[in-house]
Amino acid sequence: MTVQKKNLVIAFVAAISLVILLSIFSYSRIHAFIESAESLNHTTQVTLELEKIRGSLRDAETAKRGYLLTHDDLFLQAFTNSLQQYPSHIAIVKELTSENPEQQKSLVLVERLAHNRDDYFKKMLEVDKSRPVAPEEYLTGQAIMDSLVAEITRMEIRETILLEKHSNELLRQSLYAPLLLLALSIIALAVLVFSYLKLNKSLIQEHKIKAEGLMEAYELELAKEKERSENRFRDMVEQAPVAICLLRGKDFVVEIANDKQLQSWGTTREKLLNQPIFRDVPEDEIKWLVDKLNGVLETGEPYIETELPSKQSLDGIEKTKYLNFICEPFYEDQVIVGILAISTDVTEQVLDRKRVEESESKFKSLIDAAPIGIGVFRGRELIIENPNQEFIDIVGKGSSIVGKRLTEAMPELIEEGQPYLKILDDVFTSGKMYQSFGAPVSILKDGVMLAGFYDINYVPLFNAENQVYAILDIATDVTQRIIDTKKIQESEQRFQNLVRDASVGIVVLTGEEMKVEIVNQGYSRLFNLDPADLLNQNLFDILPDAEAYYRPILNGVMQSGLPVYLNDSPYSVVIKEKLIEGYLNVIYQPYRNISGDIIGVMAILTDVTQQVLAIKKGEESEQRFQAAIEAVQGILWTNNSIGEMEGEQIGWSSLTGQTYEEYRGFGWANALHPDDKKPTVGAWNLAVKNRSVFEFEHRLKTKDGNFRHFSI
Question: Is the pTM of this model over 0.85?
Answer without folding.
Answer: no
